[in-house]
Design goal:
Layout lengths: L3 H14 L10 E4 L2 E4 L7 E3 L9 E4 L5 E7 L1 H31 L7 H32 L18 H19 L10 H29 L5 H7 L5 H25 L4 H27 L10
Antiparallel strand pairs: 1-2, 3-5, 4-5
Keywords: Membrane, Transmembrane, Transmembrane helix
């Protein structure tokens, strides 16, 4: 394979020897010597033959492979760069709060207000951050390749990363219901309804986490562990990112199911949530490392 440095040199040399003017902006095309308006039809990426100076940013897959001999324009590169960063930050902060809430859960509190401050509120804030991170991922996926004004929502299962982030987003939304159940606002609600809010919602949310992680495992081609070990893919960061997310989702589902029968079990509930939260923290930290390595699609978007 051609080294990245060589490809950059070729791109810059091509732009240097190209005596044409800069390519027309979005909404125009050149026909002979005339500039004709065509609407919003400029592609998301420009081929290397039209690059002439400025920032040169290649589109990488999560495994570091350059996509289709193409480069991103400056504005799209910065947009992809910034949005991916905030996805990472939301997941990292959310998982840290999950770890803190799980750790403080072991202690028996005399005052409910203290338990809310150390357990309930960290879980609630962490879930909100996971919701925000999931939505930012969905927003990123639906607007890839789009010119003009970005859309806040569109059902786009055919786009890279959409389904995975959508499952994470929906799972976090449902999980918020579980996190608000201990609030004093719901203290007088029927016991059966509070139980379903606390553990039923946690089960549904965790199943969505598992579904999103499964999409991620397939996207990173890590589902067949034996093949991944044989090919050496297990040494790549996306392998560990996707499997940590999958383990975290499975452990959260186990804890939610156990909590329905024994809500105060130190082993099945507290410890299982704690380990799952650590899995999510490891995964989100790997996401940030991928971002640092300029793999802005993280674990989902090639």
């Amino acid at each position: 394979e051609m080294a990245i440095e060589d490809m950059v040199d070729i791109a810059l040399e091509t732009g240097a020897v190209d005596n044409r003017d800069d390519p027309p902006q979005s909404g125009s095309r050149v026909e002979g010597d005339e500039l004709t308006h065509t609407g919003d039809s400029t592609p998301l990426v420009s081929s290397m033959q039209t690059v002439g100076g400025g920032m040169v940013a290649f589109e990488f897959s999560s495994e570091g492979v350059i996509g289709d001999d193409m480069v991103l324009d400056d504005d799209r590169w910065r947009w992809r760069h910034t949005l991916s960063y905030w996805v990472c930050v939301c997941y990292i902060l959310g998982s840290i709060l999950f770890v803190a809430g799980s750790a403080f859960w072991y202690k028996h509190y005399v005052h409910e207000s203290r338990e809310r401050a150390l357990v309930v509120y960290p879980f609630l804030l962490g879930s909100i951050l996971f919701t925000l991170g999931g939505y930012l991922g969905v927003f990123q996926a639906i607007n890839l390749g789009r010119r003009g004004t970005s859309k806040l929502w569109e059902w786009s299962p055919e786009k890279d990363g959409f389904l995975g982030y959508w499952f994470y987003f929906v799972g976090a939304l449902v999980y918020n219901v579980s996190c608000i159940e201990p609030l004093e606002l719901f203290a007088d609600w029927p016991d059966w309804l509070k139980r379903e809010m606390a553990w039923g919602a946690a089960e549904v949310g965790s199943l969505c986490f598992i579904a999103g992680a499964f999409v991620e495992v397939r996207t990173t081609k890590s589902l067949n562990v034996f093949e991944a070990v044989k090919s050496g893919r297990w040494r790549k960061l996306p392998f560990w990112l996707s499997w940590n997310n999958l383990f975290g989702g499975c452990l959260f589902f186990t804890a939610a199911t156990a909590g329905r029968w024994d809500p105060t079990s130190p082993g099945w509930v507290y410890t299982t949530y704690l380990i799952g939260s650590v899995n999510f923290f490891i995964a989100s930290s790997i996401m940030l490392w991928l971002w640092k390595e300029e793999q802005y699609g993280l674990g989902f978007i090639p």
